[in-house]
Each structure stands twice: as C-alpha cells, then as structure tokens.
C-alpha cells in the first residue's frame, strides 16, 4: 500500500497511509476509533474504492481479484456478514464448502468452542460468541492472508487469550495476519510488526520490539551500597535521569543493552554491589502517548 487516501463527503478518513505486510507475520494496526483503521482495511478487502494511492494484494488490485486469489484471503468484518438465523457449526461448514481445500470444520469449531452453541441462532448469541463465529469463518478456508477487524472486541479475558494463541498457531503455519485493534496489550501479545494510526495517518510503524526500544524505559538496580548518583548521572549524561529510592537506583531513559553494560561496569568499578537488576520498558500505550500527547481512547 502506498499513499492511500480515502475521502468521505466532509472528511478525509485516510490521509497518505503506506505500509507492506511481510509473509508469515502478524501485523497489528492500532489506533483509536476514527483513526482510519476500518476504512483502510475495507480498501485492502476490496470493499471500498480509494480516492487515490496504490493498494495491491498478492500483486493485484483488491477491487479486481480473480476468484482463486480471493480464496486465499480470509476476512473478519467488524460486524455483519452472517445471517441472523445461522447456527454456528452449520454456517462454518457452509463457508468451508466454498473452498477447495478447507480446514477440518469440526477441528476449527472444537478449537473455538463453537459446538457448545448447539442450535443457538446468530441473533441470540452474545457479542463475543458472534465474534468467535466470524473468526472461524475467516480461517476455515485455509487462507494465506487473514484480515481481522477488531477480532476480540466483546470477548471475555480467557476468550481473548485463546484468540491470541490461535493467531500464534496461524503464524507458525505460515499465514500472514493483518489485525486491526485498539487494544495496545493485544498488539504487544501477538504482533511482529505494528502500525499506529491517528486521525487518518500513520504516526509510527515498524517491528514491535524496535518501537518499544525507541521509547523510554527504566532500569532499576537493587543495591545495599550507598551510591554517589551524581557521578552516575555525569557518566550517563542529560538524556538520562538518575534517582535513588530506598535500596534502589532508578535510571530513566532509552535503556539499551549498551546502557546495561555501561551501568554494570560502572557499579563494578565503584564497588557497588548489585543484588537485583530489572528493566521496565514502556508499553505501546506509552509510545502512543509520546507520539500524540494523549491516551488511546
């Protein structure tokens, strides 16, 4: 995707978004409501025409994919797409019948707990149960690319963890996953790469660990030794803040492996006994706040 722009009558929903998915990885697309995530995903799915920019899925315009190319994509919409009278296992079996080489329906339904829904119709299911049925439909065709729009919205904590584990299994099988979510902890749990959007534009993107390491963190050194923190502050420089709390030295800043080694060597040369060493890196929530000046709501 390059320079994607999508305009609605009175607002620009997507403003110049560019990214590429690496095969066999999970990419989390993060941002608050109104950030342009769903619109961007709809363009990738061939459900919405862009105002400008270039989008390719398997090397082709998603608006004009051949049937065999569409069969390689599994889609979970944020809502809709399933008849209100449908029963879970029967509908997943129907979706599977549309593909040449689907996954085993019973195995998928067992994995996601859909047999327990019995003859319950879709209209009578809870929000989380509906999400699970939609997820099963997205994966049962054995796709190479899965696009999931807020797949864990409405799920209880255990169901969310089960979904995260399923995404890890899909990645291990070589499936590429694009996951739209506003849950930062979800991205940290499952993603290899992260896209962070705000007000229709990407404010950051890259490998998860790279984004987290770019943010500030804290190194906590537990020691019974009295420490001259001013000397350690001079060593590290103004980009770090050194303080002391009870029997701990706290160092705030961009905590890298090099900083670890520097501090440990300094402690050794100054006879500072280290009884504990802990690094607390910022979360994606912290990164988002640093980029936008506000929390993700």
From TrEMBL:
ABC transporter domain: from which residue to which, for each copy?
Answer: 1-224
Q: Which InterPro entries match?
A: AAA+_ATPase, ABC_transporter-like_ATP-bd, ABC_transporter_ATP-binding, P-loop_NTPase
Q: Which key words are in the record?
A: ATP-binding, Nucleotide-binding, Transport
Q: Where along the sequence do coiled-coil regions lie?
A: none
A GO MF term? ATP hydrolysis activity
Looking up Pfam families in the UniProt record yields:
ABC_tran
PANTHER family, A to Z:
ABC TRANSPORTER ATP-BINDING PROTEIN
What name is this protein filed under? Unannotated protein
């Amino acid at each position: 995707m390059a320079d994607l722009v999508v305009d609605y009558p009175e607002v620009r929903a997507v403003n110049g978004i560019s990214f590429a998915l690496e095969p066999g990885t999970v990419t989390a697309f993060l941002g608050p409501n109104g950030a342009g995530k769903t619109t961007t995903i709809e363009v990738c799915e061939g459900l919405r025409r862009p105002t400008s920019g270039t989008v390719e899925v398997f090397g082709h315009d998603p608006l004009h994919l051949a049937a065999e190319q569409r069969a390689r994509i599994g889609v979970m919409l944020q809502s809709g797409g399933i008849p209100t009278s449908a029963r879970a296992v029967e509908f997943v079996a129907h979706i599977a019948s549309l593909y040449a080489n689907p996954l085993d329906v019973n195995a998928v339904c067992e994995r996601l707990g859909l047999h327990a829904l019995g003859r319950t119709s879709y209209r009578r299911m809870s929000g989380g149960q509906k999400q699970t049925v939609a997820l099963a439909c997205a994966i049962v065709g054995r796709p190479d690319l899965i696009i999931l729009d807020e797949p864990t919205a409405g799920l209880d904590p255990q169901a969310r963890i089960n979904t995260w584990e399923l995404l890890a299994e899909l990645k291990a099988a070589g499936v590429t996953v694009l996951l739209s979510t506003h849950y930062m902890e979800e991205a940290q749990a499952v993603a290899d790469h992260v896209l962070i959007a705000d007000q229709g534009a990407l404010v950051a993107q890259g490998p998860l660990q790279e984004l987290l390491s770019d943010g500030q963190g804290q190194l906590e050194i537990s020691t019974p030794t009295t420490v001259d923190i001013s000397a350690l502050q001079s060593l590290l420089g103004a980009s770090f803040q050194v303080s002391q709390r009870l029997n701990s030295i706290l160092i705030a800043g961009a905590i890298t492996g090099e900083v670890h080694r520097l501090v440990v060597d300094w402690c050794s040369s100054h006879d500072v006994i280290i009884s504990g060493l802990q690094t607390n890196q910022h979360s994606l929530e912290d990164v988002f706040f640093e980029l936008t000046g506000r929390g993700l709501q």
